[in-house]
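Quick look at the format.
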Amino acid sequence: MLPILIGLWQLAYQLDIAGRVLLPSPHAVWAAGLWLHSSGVLWPNLWSTLGAALGALALSAVVGIPAGILLGRLPRTWAVLAAIESSVLANRFQRRPRRGRPTVLGTVSRPRTVRMPCACGRSPCGSDRRRVVCSTTCR
């Protein structure tokens, strides 16, 4: 499998698919790796990178495992977090209609006054959706 991948890499290099800077030849990468090893630069940098990756993995395990146990043990906590998660996902993927005048950065929406009947049954007043009674006669 590895010789096939290296052969495809060499073919992509020769056809100049991604450019010589972004996709160097396998021979150039091997030569650079040998130079880094012989100069003593490779191993300290490799250990530094591996140490950072393992530290991040350990930190995520220290936080994630107790959080998972807590969510599994306390159904009320799971219910609260599931409700928050579903509302975040619903708001994130919901298509909102664009209102207002278009600008360079998007649309500027103005609050609309919704004409709805008053709780007393009179003709529609100028109250918004959250208010049930007229602002003038039904207080």
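Next, a different chain entirely:
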Amino acid sequence: MLGLSAAASIRVCNELGVGHPRVAKFSVFVVTGTSILISIVFTAIILIFQVGLSKLFSTDPEVIETVIELTPLLAISIFLNKNQHHEDHELNGEDLVHGV
């Protein structure tokens, strides 16, 4: 996901340098939307396969139950962290776009 952030930052900076603030703003929306979509997919996969993932690493019922209880926190963490990198990089460039 950091590669996507780097590519978006370069795209935004290039568009701002050429004088196309609206294209830069659209690029930010596209990358943020893509990041949110990827985060939703990974979060759904983790939540759907939480029992299978817990059994993959342990056969102890207590460990399996604990992993199942903690899996929603992992899913939330993945969702929030995947979006943070993009917004952090892009907002620095977007701050230069005044009046868009």
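The chain has four helices and no strands.

See the schema section for token definitions.
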